[in-house]
Write a structure and sequence with these properties.
This protein has 10 helices and 14 strands. It is α/β, with parallel strands linked by helices. The strands form 3 sheets. The protein has a 10-stranded mixed beta sheet with strand order 2-1-5-14-13-6-7-12-10-11, with helices on both faces. Strands 3-4 form a two-stranded antiparallel sheet. A two-stranded antiparallel ribbon has the order 8-9. Helix 1 crosses helix 8, helix 1 runs parallel beside helix 10 and helix 6 runs parallel beside helix 7. The two termini are about 25 Å apart. The structure holds nicotinamide-adenine-dinucleotide. InterPro entries: IsoCit/isopropylmalate_DH_CS, Isocitrate_DH_NAD, IsoPropMal-DH-like_dom.
Length: about 325
């Protein structure tokens, strides 16, 4: 927080539709009088010592400000390109990915009362990247589960549950099959649960969770679900599907020092530069960011305005079946403020 009472936040506008949806966030924040100054940084990879890396200025900015809002980054297809998203996650050790999915009034889906909160371990598990060929035609891929990373994400899940007023945490696992790896995760979950006597703890098998959630999501509305990396990746997209898709789902990548909030969707190259993009997911990610920063009044105010415009359904973007441009939608939100 600076002398002017404003918080500086790093803004990574991103590729494709990134700059357009970032503009909507900036305009709406100005209209709402949010005490935030944006520090825009470019994360286009540069060549350093023969490796492609994120520019130091971008890393310094996030390190200095602790909080960043990020638009989508396009990962070039082909050999030798590391995913920038993965690089950011590793650079800042963003160990937990938080994905809330709440039904949006006005946007009809099979269920209108979904309100799930899922926390995914973000650094290891099936995505540890350790793979090798044993002999021709036989490959091994290592699922890495460590006490350290499991403890960190599980403790965070219990703390987050308390912060958002839920008193149930459920670990999702396959310890029946992955006896050692998921078994360790589950045992640590049981240990950590003892430190949170006010939070109920239970566990559920992943396949059972999937089946039950798509049959009736309501029993999940009072819980925080926490799980290893791959399960979280898949289950969080399933939850997104329950509320109408990736265009509406926010996320937060939480680290011990810094946190980066981002929309779940990609850079949408097919509609980039045409003023057609829906900025809602990035806006809702920024709301998570405001809540994380303790600026809850501003978060509520902007969120209510967004939900009002979506519920009215008059000024919505093409992906939701409307005709409004990105900026027309943003203007409607500003009016609703
Ligand atoms: P995508 O999410 O960019 O697009 C999928 C479809 O959804 C497209 O038809 C697109 O027009 C639509 N869409 C996405 N966001 C929208 C929005 N806000 N408003 C309206 N429509 C929207 O997925 P993709 O095409 O598989 O990926 C494109 C690029 O994005 C790739 O380079 C990929 O690596 C990258 N990507 C980045 C992230 C990230 O930065 N977190 C996530 C996923 C994909």
């Amino acid at each position: 927080k600076g002398n002017d009472g404003k918080y500086t936040v790093t803004l990574i506008e991103g590729d494709g539709i990134g700059p357009e949806i970032s503009q909507s966030v900036k305009d709406i924040y100005t209209a709402a009088g949010v005490p935030i100054k944006w520090e825009s940084v470019d994360v286009t990879p540069r060549l350093k010592d023969g490796k492609t890396v994120i520019p130091d200025e971008a890393i310094d900015s996030v390190t200095r400000n602790f909080v960043a809002l990020k638009g989508p980054l396009a990962t070039p297809v082909g050999k030798g390109h590391v995913s920038l998203n993965l690089t950011l996650r590793r650079t800042f050790n963003l160990f937990a990915n938080v994905r809330p999915c709440k039904s949006i009034a006005g946007y009809k889906t099979p269920y209108d009362n979904v309100d799930t909160v899922l926390i995914r371990e973000n650094t290891e598990g099936e995505y540890s990247g350790i793979e090798h060929v044993v002999v021709d035609g036989v490959v091994q891929s290592i699922k890495l589960i460590t006490r350290e990373a499991s403890e960190r994400v599980l403790r965070f899940a219990f703390q987050h549950a308390q912060e958002i007023g839920r008193n149930k945490v459920r670990a999702v696992h396959k310890a029946t099959i992955m006896k050692m790896s998921d078994g360790l995760f589950l045992n640590i979950a049981r240990e950590i649960a003892k430190d949170f006597p006010n939070v109920e703890f239970d566990a559920e098998l992943l396949d059972n969770t999937c089946l039950k959630m798509v049959t009736d999501p309501v029993p999940y509305n009072d819980k925080v679900l926490v799980m290893p990396n791959l399960y979280g990746d898949i289950l969080s997209d399933m939850c997104a599907g329950l509320i109408g898709g990736l265009g509406l789902t926010p996320s937060g990548n939480i680290g011990s020092e810094c946190s980066i909030f981002e929309a779940v969707h990609g850079s949408a190259p097919d509609i980039a530069g045409k003023g057609l993009a829906n900025p809602t997911a990035l806006l809702l990610s920024s709301i998570m960011m405001l809540q994380h920063m303790g600026l809850t009044d501003y978060a509520d105010k902007i969120q209510n305005a967004i939900f009002k415009v979506l519920a009215e359904g008059k000024t919505i973007t093409g992906d939701l079946g409307g005709k409004a441009s990105t900026s027309q939608y943003a203007e409607a939100v500003m009016k609703a403020l």
